[in-house]
Specification:
alpha/beta; about 400 residues; 8 helices; Immunoglobulin-like
């Protein structure tokens, strides 16, 4: 397709030391989300940027541009945990060729804001990351900037841990922007950068509810998922507070996830339900971006009450469940109850996971916000999920873990 004029992006540091992006020579503050769905809604609610993880064609750039959105375009960099060997020169050179080919093809697209070079490529095998990986990220950054001097390069790491920040400072002097994926520890990012002596600008490239590795566990080790209202509060507070604390280093935030995925549960990180309904997390980011709540507010499940909750129960026992629901805006509500096995396919760093099976026949009676659950016959860990959907494309979800003994 014929392209419009490119949109050059530059980094600028003001006389007071505050960083900002200049897009087409105008200040640009990044506010948006990572994910590939509902670009129309993101734009309508005040977002201006989409983050991708694996951009290698014009498709996502074209879709974003159609809605006037900028793109942090992900350049996929291989992970050691997936079998990539950074000591293998031929594989490293093949990766360089692939990445530079993508840059050459896409660098003049008008939706392009910055390059997202890798995602948590430093890995989790050692606290400071592998020096060879850091060096290669810096080499790639230099090569990309030589090919495209009009768009800064951002490398994304997992969390503001001192060991990683020190390695980044030592090995990556040519990276323009540091991307931080952080959840429960997100608000420590500005302080951590100060302690590490890093004055580089940063983006909060992923944030959202408390992570499953940070939350409270049941006695059998199942992580307890935050409620919908708690998630919404954390999205809003993190966006606002990170900017207040950043001292001018923060270039913006990108919420996770503008979509849905299975990660521990099918509801923990997605800001939408699998069937497409927006949740209160989306409403919270609308308020963060524009200062205005959306016209149609999502329902929320404020509480699930049951003897099931975080309990060890006998097989085939029956338990009443009551949900407290804030309807949000007016509209008919539909209630769906499901029992699923606890996930046992746990990935690392957001790697794909299989959805655990649903256990049929467990919800024996249901009437709107009330249900009776019969425990499965087989011993093991399970969760009860409630999904609430309205007639205008909004929804809510909550779950409670429980353990069945034979």
């Amino acid at each position: 397709m014929p392209l419009l004029s490119p949109s050059p992006t530059k980094l600028h540091r003001n006389s007071d030391g505050r960083w900002q992006l200049l897009r087409n020579d105008r200040p640009f503050f990044t506010q948006g989300a990572g994910g590939g769905r509902r670009f129309d809604l993101l734009k309508k609610l005040g977002g201006n940027t989409v983050r991708t993880w694996h951009t290698n064609s014009f498709e996502e750039l074209d879709r974003a541009h159609a809605y006037g959105l900028a793109v942090m375009a992900g350049l996929s960099v291989e992970h050691e945990r997936h079998g990539f060997d950074y000591g293998d020169r031929s594989r490293v050179e093949s990766q360089r060729i692939r990445i530079l080919d993508t840059v050459r093809r896409l660098k003049d697209h008008p939706a392009l804001l910055i390059w997202g070079l890798g995602n948590e490529t430093e890995g989790f095998e050692r606290p400071d990351g592998h020096p060879g990986v850091w060096r290669e990220l810096d080499r790639l950054a230099r090569m990309i900037k030589a090919e495209d001097p009009d768009h800064p390069v951002c490398t994304v790491i997992a969390g503001p841990r001192m060991e990683k920040l020190s390695s980044f400072k030592q090995y990556c002097p040519h990276v323009d922007i540091l991307g931080i994926n952080a959840y429960g520890e997100a608000l420590d990012t500005p302080g951590a950068l100060t302690r590490a002596g890093l004055e580089i600008p940063f983006l909060l490239t992923e944030f959202g509810p408390t992570g499953h590795w940070e939350t409270r566990l049941t006695p059998w080790g199942a992580p307890v998922e935050p409620s919908g209202p708690e998630k919404a509060r954390v999205y809003l507070d993190t966006h606002r507070e990170i900017l207040r604390r950043s001292g001018g280093q923060c270039l913006g935030t990108l919420a996770f996830l503008w979509g849905q995925k299975q990660e521990v549960t099918p509801t923990w990180y997605g800001m939408f339900l699998a069937t497409g309904e927006k949740t209160a997390a989306v409403d919270a980011m609308a308020l963060a971006w524009s200062g205005i709540e959306p016209e149609h507010r999502s329902p929320t499940i404020t509480r699930l009450s049951s003897s099931l909750a975080e309990s060890v129960i006998p097989s085939a026992s029956e338990h009443e469940v009551l949900a407290d629901v804030d309807q949000g805006s007016e509209g008919d509500l539909r209630f769906d109850w499901h029992v699923m096995a606890e996930s046992t396919d746990r990935g690392i760093g957001g790697d794909p996971e299989r959805m655990p099976p649903e256990i049929p026949g467990c919800v024996t009676r249901k009437a709107f916000c009330q249900a009776v659950v019969r425990a499965p016959e087989k011993s093991g860990a399970y969760r009860l999920f409630l999904y609430v959907r309205d007639s205008q494309g909004a929804g809510a979800t909550a779950n409670i873990p429980f353990f069945v003994t034979g």
